[in-house]
Amino acid sequence: MNKDVEVKFSTEALQVFQYLANRSVHSKVERSLFNAITRKIELIKSNPLVGDNIAKVLIPRAYRDKYLVKNLYRVELPNFWRMLYTLTDEELKIIAFVVDVVDHKGYNERFGYKN
Q1: Count of structural domains, the chain
Q2: Which of 49, 74, 75, 47 is nearest to 59 (CA)?
C-alpha cells in the first residue's frame, strides 16, 4: 500500500514561508523563493526522498533537540537558500516536516561551516 505524504512546517519555517508569500507580490526574489518552495513541496509529496540526505553526524544539535530529528534532507532553492525537512512514518502516511527555510549564511551557521 502506498502511503500519503503530508507536509507540515515548523513555526519558524512557516513564518519564513508566509513572509515570502506576502512579499512575493512586490519582489521578484521573494516570488521566486515562494514559488520554488511550493514546487518542492509538491515534489516531496510525490517522492519524499527527493532531497539530499544529510549525514546523521552533521544534523545540527538544535534540530535534534527541538524537533527530535533523526534524518534530515535538504532541497536547494534559488539564491542559495535551502529547505530542510525530516521524515516520520505514521501508520497510514508519511509526514515531511519542514524544519527550516534558510538563506546561505544561515545554513552555514547552523551546520558550522566557515565562509
Answers
A1: 1
A2: 74
Q: What are phi and psi of 18, to 5 degrees?
A: -65, -40
Domain hosting 65: range is 4-111
Distances (CA, A) of 86 to 25, 36, 43, 79, 89: 30, 18, 14, 22, 10
CATH of residue 24: 3.30.2310.20
Amino acid, res. 115: N
pTM of the predicted model as reported, rounded to 2 decimal places: 0.88
Summarize pLDDT for 71-98 with one digit per residue, the tens.
Answer: 999 999 999 999 999 998 876 678 899 9
Cell numbers for 78, please give them: 534559488
β partners of residue 52 = 74
**Which residue type does 40 have?**
K
